[in-house]
């Protein structure tokens, strides 16, 4: 593959940055001005993803604790299994 083919144009980078910014919640987007750099956007996105990972870990731990305290034949356990698809 030639070097020219593997390069991403500035226009493509700008388009990808805009798409990435649109994926952030409104509250996170407010922290970024229109003139914010791609670097700032990437840092904000990484921070947001890390926060989401912590939330998932927390919820997984809470769900694990909850399911370990339930009678496996209880209606509540059945509801949780149906929600989780297991």
From TrEMBL:
| Family affiliation | Belongs to the bHLH protein family.
Domain annotation BHLH: ranges: 1-52
Q: Which UniProt keywords apply?
A: Growth regulation, Transcription, Transcription regulation
Higher taxonomy: Eukaryota, Viridiplantae, Streptophyta, Embryophyta, Tracheophyta
Give the organism the record lists. Musa acuminata subsp. malaccensis (Wild banana)
Question: What are this entry's molecular-function GO terms?
Answer: protein dimerization activity
Q: What is this protein called?
A: (wild Malaysian banana) hypothetical protein
Q: Which GO terms describe its biological process?
A: regulation of DNA-templated transcription; regulation of growth
